[in-house]
Amino acid sequence: MTEAPKKRGRLFYKFLLIFLIVSLVPLGIVGYYLVSLSQVTLNKAISRDQEALAVGFADTVASYIINFRNVLFDAAHLEDFSSMNTAKQQNLVSHIMQLHPAFLEISVFDANGMETVRLGRFVHENKMRDFSADALFTKVMRAGEFVGGLEKYMGSYPAVTMGVQIVNPVTNQPVGAVLAKMSLTALSSLLKTGFPEATHTQAAVIDSNGFLIAHSNSKEIYKPDAKLPDDVLRILLQNDAKTGGGELILESTGERVLGAFAEVTELGWVIYIQRSVAVAYQASDDMLKRTRNMMLIVTFFVLFLGYAVSLVITQPIQALREAAIKLGEGDFDYLPDLSMPNDEIGELAHTFMQMSESLKVKTAEIMSAKVELERLNRSLENRVEARTRELKSAQDELIKKERLAAIGQMASVVGHEIRNPLAVINNSIYFIKTKTNATPNPEPKVVKHIAIIESEIRQANGIIDEILGFARTRELNPKLVHLNSYLEDITMSYPVPPHIEMVKTFAPENPTVNIDADEMTQALRNLIKNGIEVMPEHGKIYVRSELVDAGTVRIDVEDTGCGMPKETAEKIFAPFFTTKARGTGLGLAVVKKVADRHKGKVEVVSVVGKGTCFKFYIPVVQNPPAAPR
Fold first, then answer.
1. What range defines the domain where residue 436 resides?
2. Residue at 146 is within a domain
3. Cα–Cα distance measured from residue 161 to residue 137, given in angstroms and rounded to the nearest whole number
4. CA–CA distance, 435 with 582 (Å, rounded to integer)
5. Interatomic CA distance for residues 193 and 627, integer angstroms
6. Co-location of 467 and 482 in the same domain
7. DSSP secondary structure letters along 567-604
8. Do residues 464 and 494 both lie within one domain?
9. Do the domain assignments include residue 422?
10. Model pTM above 0.70
11. For residue range 19-31, what is the model confidence (pLDDT) as tens digits?
12. Residues 611 and 549 in one domain
């Protein structure tokens, strides 16, 4: 007779349902929130990147036009131009057009507006013109330089007219003007290079009237009355902001696009970049799709885990139920084998089986409970001992901090009070020295002891300076400095003994840093001083700087001394730790303090018998302001 299949009890389905609710509902809510937040954040970042790209290309276009204007400006200030010698001017204009193919036509005018030189790539007539009444010539003579608006050269090529004054370098008076027509087709090539068709991105440059100056698709600029769509122009021309961006729907096609614009400085032009939303947010959509797939995988995993957990919980209870039925029927010899887990259900099964066991089993159970209690007691003792050690360590650290704070306050008072008698002693020694030097034959011992007193006064002042430098905290006074010149000043002014050779290697990038020069100088001089002191006979001091990455520069101060063991190197930055016969042990503590205040760090690498290298890391200023001309 075959055994009927076992049915799942209601407890199994309750456990499964509860586990699914507890696991999937919070996971679904948190997952949905995180995915939505990540998608919004990523889309905003993409929009900001496109806006930053527009700003960058606006600067590029401005630099492109201004560079050509500067070419004319530099030429107009040459003596050959200011001499108003037609032959020399013709040679210079010809040379400029050979060097710069963007110039379509260049004309030179005297102070009265009469054309003296005219060269052009499509100009075949040699008749000179009168520009005395021309508005552009008048603006150039009045303002010194001028860049006009968009025009179609020969009815096809987008071009711009620019002009600069010709100034006599002796009298500094304008003697004429140079006007040039420059082709803007190279801007379209620049946009096409930056935004190829494969990226599904369009970029354009428009003037203040909305006409196309350049386009990533160069065919667009050769169209008659070339413009962007009217709905885009309304946004760009009616907006007072210098930069901006966001989503818009094109009225002509109904397509949703992501647009960004930026004004070109000094020219009044606008850079406009447009990408399809589907392309721009592709990364965001891919992330959402992958996240949904992962959520499905997690859901299936939770279902499987819930099923397994429910089985683990309900199977022992089912076996215990079958044993209770056998026991209720009086079948004591054929009870099922109860292999139970070590948890509450297992304890219930164990209690159930104890009903048929002897006193020996009960005694064994008591002994087992005793062993378990001893184990728990030992575990509790170990935990108490560990917490006691942690509390003592925290107490020692607090005492150390309070002691350092008290020492700092005491150092400020004592240092100030000791300096006064030291100054009096120094003045007295100076007076005695003056009297001694005035004697024909001063006593050598007196001279020697005067020198010893002076040396000890300097040593005492140095100790006070170190203590005060460590104890005193003032507001940082950071300033932007070029690191190479700053390091050069420090190394040139430091008195290096004759037996020491200083080797300097500075970063070719010459990064700019924002530092408090006084504090940084004290820290670097402490490192150089320590290096010199460990080389009493001869050696080398290496001072190097190296750009570690775009945001950090490292300053190395390395000596060729005897080095130090690892256990010493781990303690050298602790206050009052020193290996010298004399010293406060605060020099390197001050170095670490300066590094921390400048949001940097200091490390030491030392090899016994070869030398020690201190590595001082500080942040680099990104895009420092240019120095005024």
1. 373-473
2. yes
3. 11
4. 32
5. 32
6. no
7. HHHTTTTSTT---SSS--S-HHHHHHHHHHHTT-EEEE
8. no
9. yes
10. no
11. 677 766 776 777 6
12. yes
